[in-house]
Design goal:
Layout: E1 3-4, H1 6-13, H2 17-25, E2 33-35, E3 38-42, H3 95-100, H4 105-118, H5 122-129, H6 138-155, H7 158-174, H8 181-197, H9 218-234, H10 238-251, H11 257-273, H12 277-291, H13 298-302, H14 310-318, H15 320-345, H16 355-365, H17 370-377, H18 381-395
Antiparallel strand pairs: 1-3, 2-3
Helix pairs in contact: 1-2, 4-5, 4-6, 5-6, 6-7, 6-8, 6-15, 7-8, 8-9, 9-10, 9-11, 10-11, 11-12, 14-15, 16-18, 17-18
Length: 409
């Protein structure tokens, strides 16, 4: 049998390549087979008949993907697990076995997009997630939107991040009394997670996440508790944030590695803010034990600036190559993060410091002395003073007390 490529099928049927790929993912092209990241389509395959509720739209050659607002209707229900990898209770070191064991090919795709993202490969994550941005099944669509939005922060495609999350907010706004409560809970979770992790104000239409947690599957519920703990940290209530983390870690019947990694990281943030580095180190090592076997290092790079030099103090010596990769993730993610955060909030989070300068400045802004910083990070007092001097010069300020306006909240 002769096969053609996705591009050739798109030209033959006069539709977009993305729609052809979506038809392949949905199993609607008989005989189509996946080889690596590409599809082979039988030359005699017929173009699938479009679903009535999904009109075909040609995607123009433009910077942004074409997305439907996708209002929620009473006829659509969430029957597929959202964020299947985040909801995976797999043993560390067996992440790919879990992904490959998912029977539904759509869930495998979303889980693979999650794996690409959480292992620090945003381009690959965005490529897979984009196939589902207009998908009729809302749980898959919202999962894809969250992955796609965050992946594009690291890629530097900020306009795509903003556009995708605007679509999610429109989906939430379209929910009504006929919307299945699980779907509304998922939309609230997606919008809340995006806002809190970017340190942005919550949109007015979003209610308390706490009220929606019970409607989420276990892994997503745990990640929702991480979002709550992170938000509580931003409010400066570090003790309460730690309480949320400890309760979340104690309540689970199984270990869900990805949400647990993030829960431990917010505990590091809390304990460093309370100047309790020993407790912070305990949680960092617990997060690393879950992440390192499957290379799930993205969260460490995302949180670097909030971890108070703990990565330098704990991971740099024993895992130098992993540390270098985490720092590379930090630079990419934080550049995109600031492009979204700074204009919206009016804060001027520093964007011209090295990761070491930022870590030292964060500790100084929290009231740590130069000697305490040196002891914690395992460097000399002279080195701390050198970095402090260069930091103040770059920020064009003269006193340590002025650092707070440039540091993460």
């Amino acid at each position: 049998m002769k096969y053609i490529t996705v591009r050739e099928a798109a030209q033959k049927w006069n539709i977009s390549q993305r729609l052809v790929q979506q038809y392949c993912v949905d199993g609607r092209i008989e005989g189509a087979a996946k080889f690596g990241s590409s599809w082979a389509i039988p030359d005699n395959a017929q173009r699938p008949v479009p679903l009535q509720e999904e009109p075909i739209q040609k995607v123009p050659e433009a910077p942004l993907p074409r997305l439907r607002p996708c209002p929620v209707s009473a006829g659509k229900t969430a029957h597929l697990l959202p964020m299947p990898l985040m909801n995976g209770a797999f043993q560390p070191g067996h992440c790919m076995e879990y992904v490959e064991g998912l029977k539904d090919p759509r869930l495998r795709d979303i889980a693979m997009a999650e794996y690409h993202y959480f292992s620090g490969r945003p381009e690959e994550a965005a490529e897979v997630a984009e196939l589902y941005l207009s998908y009729p099944e809302q749980s898959l669509r919202l999962s894809a939107c969250l992955i796609y939005a965050y992946a594009n922060l690291s890629i530097g495609q900020i306009q795509r991040t903003r556009y995708t999350m605007a679509q999610v907010r429109r989906t939430l706004a379209a929910a009504n009394t006929r919307t299945p409560p699980q779907l509304r809970a998922l939309a609230v979770f997606t919008v809340t997670a995006a806002a809190v992790l970017l340190h942005l104000p919550l949109p007015e239409e979003v209610g308390p996440l706490q009220e929606q947690l019970r409607l989420l599957p276990p892994g997503l519920r745990l990640f929702g508790l991480y979002v709550q703990a992170h938000h509580t940290y931003l409010l400066g209530d570090y003790g309460k944030s730690i309480g949320i983390v400890e309760t979340a870690l104690a309540m689970q019947a199984e270990v869900y590695p990805i949400p647990n990694i993030y829960l431990h990281l917010v505990a590091v943030m809390d304990y460093m803010s309370l100047k309790q580095p020993e407790q912070a180190e305990r949680h960092l090592l617990a997060a690393w034990a879950l992440a390192q076997p499957d290379d799930l290092i993205e969260g460490f790079g995302e949180h670097h600036g909030l971890l108070g030099g703990m990565l330098e103090a704990v991971l740099k010596k024993d895992w130098p190559e992993d540390f270098k990769r985490i720092i590379a993730i930090t630079y990419r993610f934080s550049a995109g993060w600031r492009k979204v955060h700074n204009p919206v909030t009016g804060h001027d989070v520093a964007d011209n410091l090295t990761t070491t300068e930022f870590a030292i400045a964060m500790l100084a802004a929290r009231g740590w002395s130069n000697q305490e910083i040196a002891d914690h990070m395992g460097i000399s007092l002279y080195t701390v003073k050198h970095f402090m001097s260069s930091t103040l010069q770059k920020l064009n300020i003269k006193q340590r007390k002025d650092l707070k306006q440039y540091m993460l909240r």
